[in-house]
Amino acid sequence: xxxxxxxxxxxxxxxxxxxxxxxxxxxxxxxxxxxxxxxxxxxxxxxxxxxxxxxxxxxxxxxxxxxxxxxxxxxxxxxxxxxxxxxxxxxxxxxxxxxxxxxxxxxxxxxxxxxxxxxxxxxxxxxxxxxxxxxxxxxxxxxxxxxxxxxxxxxxx
Length: 157
Known about the structure:
The protein is mainly alpha-helical. Helix content is 57%, strand content 0%.
């Protein structure tokens, strides 16, 4: 039996491994490059952990889209969230605010969201990327919606 080291050094979380284990084994190289860029950009103090958290949120919201994950990351960066703890606190606060608003409206009354909730959902669930993001192309959103409709049998072509 080999001698085990006195201390086991935990491995740094790897978003690419998480992606291949939870979304698809065949990760496109462009997504690997994008992940590497998010790590290198310096938006986050714990980029690997935060990217994995964004991937979790993506999956928990019923999608496996890297574009959705990117929008989550953009939203968190825009909010100035730098650590995993800050991100998790923001997620928890959002969940609490959603829960506290449940039952607030009875049948027949308005169920409009606050402007803050709308902005948060836009950032996390497919709202347009900030206008200063040179990679954002609104035509891609329309194309994605058209393709999703075709996949779901709702295409009009």
